[in-house]
Each structure stands twice: as C-alpha cells, then as structure tokens.
C-alpha cells in the first residue's frame, strides 16, 4: 500500500527559485511544469547554464515567460570544453536583459571530470568576466573548499557583486569565508535528507538574510518526493525545512530569502 505523499504547500508569500536546469527536465511537458510552478506561488525562476552547448538554450528558455531568467557560464565538469569562443559568447550575453548572473562556475574535485588545473583557470577566467561586467556569480564547489577560498580571495576587491555558493555541501570554513565576504549560500532538497546533518549545521550557522532557496532540479528531489524527478515546484518543501532547522517562523524565512534573492539577482528592482 503506497502512502499518499503530502501535497505541495502553497504560501501567501512568493518564492524565488534561484537554481534549476529547465532544459534537463524530462518527466512532463515544460509548459505543464511552468503552470505548476506558478500554482505554488513561485514568482521567478532562474535556469542555469552549465556548458558551451546549453548557453543559447538557457537564453531561449529565459525568453519564454517574463518571470523566467537565466545565467551564462561553464560548469567545472565542462571546463575542458571552455574556449575563447565560448568566453566571448558568455561575455556578449551576460548583460542581456534576462541574464542575471555568470554561472554555474567553480571547482569539482569529487568527480574530477576535468583536469583540476584547467578547472582553476576556467574558474578564474569566468570570475573575471563577472568582475568586468559587474554581474553576480553562481558558484559550484565540491570537495574543493581550500582552492575555492584561494581563488575567490583573488577577486575580493574586483568582484563588486558577490552571488551565491549554490547547493552548499562544503565545510564550515568555506561557509564562514563566504558569509563574511557577503556571499549567499544556496540550499535545496539536500536539507531534507536523513544523512545531511552536516548541511543542516551550515543552515543553522548562516544568517537567514544570506540564504537562497533552490531546487537544483532535476536533481536532489526533497522529501517527501525523493525518487521522482525534481522540479522547481517542490521548492516550498525546502523553505519549510529551512524554517524548521533554523527554528524561525516560516513567514520570516520566506521574506528574508525572497529579499536575499532580489538583492543578489535583481538589485535594480530595489529589494530592501
């Protein structure tokens, strides 16, 4: 007998999905996903670029609805595919109206899909784009805390807008450095996983004003929907878990994370 899974909660205060991969979703037509996203009061969605091959696709997706946005950048897994032409494309489009950040960029020493020295070079080159253009950054860091800190510290003075270390699973050292430097930390369905106490410890440590909500869909589906493809409309479960872990009223978490998202990605709209 299958247990009925709890319905997705709908809150009065809107949510912003700061990190997903709409072009990776397979389970249902995109139009249906987007309708469901709106039905649970998600106000904006940012879909994230990861490779030279999907930069244009992310730009196209960001044009589908007024409330869809994108990024431009190359993930560390794809660092060996980075080229001058790719860099020129990121630079050209990072200032497009619907492109809100440079990303997803960074270091991944867990999978080591690309040579580590190449990863570091490509990370620096893309941070330079963000510094030159005054854009925030979406960072991926896995098992690379020391090098992430070292490289970010090179850009402390030139990167005028920080951004987010997304899907934060790193240690307290990187968390403290990032928070002290004015970065946000992004949390997703991992916060709901039984064995993720290390991530919940960082949630407890981080000021709610520096937390962003994300799903990273189609990956990391939150409880109670683990086993299904993740989608942006599961974001309310992440918000609930953050409130529970931080022992804060849900309304406070919704308000603070919304404002942090606006400050990070939409500062011209004057979030306070």
Report the average pLDDT across residues.
97
Shape by Cα distribution: globular
Helical stretch tally: 9
Side-by-side strand order of the widest sheet: 1-2-3-4-5-6-7-8
Instruction: Identify low-pLDDT runs.
Output: none
What is the SS-derived class? alpha/beta
Name the assembly state.
Answer: single chain
Distance between the termini: 49 Å
Fraction of residues in helix: 25-40%
- What is the gyration radius calculated from CA atoms? 17 Å
- Give the tally of β-strands: 8
Please trace the helix and strand order, writing H or E for each element.
EHEHEHEHEHEHEHEHH
Strand content: 15-25%
Report the major sheet.
8 strands, parallel
Tell me the layout of helices and strands.
Blueprint: E1 15-20, H1 30-39, E2 42-47, H2 55-62, E3 68-72, H3 84-93, E4 99-108, H4 116-133, E5 137-142, H5 145-154, E6 163-165, H6 172-180, E7 184-187, H7 197-205, E8 211-213, H8 235-246, H9 250-265
Parallel strand pairs: 1-2, 2-3, 3-4, 4-5, 5-6, 6-7, 7-8
Helix pairs in contact: 5-6, 8-9
Question: Gist?
Answer:
The protein has helices spanning 30-39, 55-62, 84-93, 116-133, 145-154, 172-180, 197-205, 235-246, 250-265; strands spanning 15-20, 42-47, 68-72, 99-108, 137-142, 163-165, 184-187, 211-213. The protein has 272 residues and is of the alpha/beta class.
